[in-house]
Amino acid sequence: MSANRQTALVTGASAGLGEEYCRQLAERCDTIIAVARRADRLQALQAELAGRTRLVPVVADLATVEGVTRTVEALRQQGPPDILVNNAGFSTFGDFGRSVLEDELQVVRLQIDATLELVRAAVPFMRERGGGAIINVASVGAFLNMKQTAVYGGCKAFMVSFSRALQAEVASDNIRVQCLCPGLTRTEIHDTAYFEGFDKARMPAELWMDAAPVVAASLAALGQAEVVVIPGSLNGQLAREGLQQQLQSLQ
């Protein structure tokens, strides 16, 4: 993977971590394929990064077959990609037994199905080019008991397991796989209608991080061997405690 003239594809690029990935990748990529549902946000980001990188906006809903198809086509036509960032996601909040099943299935389609399809499309190109990087954005919740966000937590646990196995498969192809597991991050995920009833003020201030240092930690760790990257010492402690509880339950 060349240090210059790289191409990246970033999903969920209109806000939060995805938007921040685009900003920070602009320093190393000539082209960024930015995928999100909100065209106006993508256009604003395109204008912001003009002169630093060529941002190609792709308006697509990755929870739909049409949206994934459009994104895979953009990956083929505007790529091939050196870096793939699977960041798009959302969560419901509440008792799963009282939830709207279609909403929960949308969480799965976006965070698991779309990720698998994009990775499957990108890996052959990366192998042919002699390397690449795949960043799958999960959550420290992958290691915790995610009461009231059960499907989201399950998807993130899948992402950790999948990323580790994928790295074992593609390591000899010079493809780096990372699973980023941030904790509470100041993005828009908690401000949607799905999170009605969630009070951010009840969460300890020291657990919150801004998007910029989370993305910086992710990109800085791309050269390291560890697949799972957990920004923030407190988040690392939470993950270790969660894993310890799981081990104790097996005794």
Task: Give a topology summary.
Layout (H helix, E strand, L loop, with lengths): L5 E6 L4 H10 L3 E8 L2 H11 L4 E6 L5 H14 L4 E4 L14 H29 L2 E6 L12 H21 L4 E6 L30 H10 L7 E2 L3 H17 L2
Parallel strand pairs: 1-2, 1-4, 2-3, 4-5, 5-6, 6-7
Helix pairs in contact: 1-6, 3-4, 4-5
What does this structure look like?
The chain is α/β, with parallel strands linked by helices and 251 residues long. The chain is 45% helix and 15% strand. The protein is built from 7 helices and 7 strands; from the N terminus they run βαβαβαβαβαβαβα. The protein has a 7-stranded parallel beta sheet, with helices on both faces. Strand 2 (29-36), helix 2 (39-49) and strand 3 form a beta-alpha-beta unit. It is globular, with a radius of gyration of 17 Å.
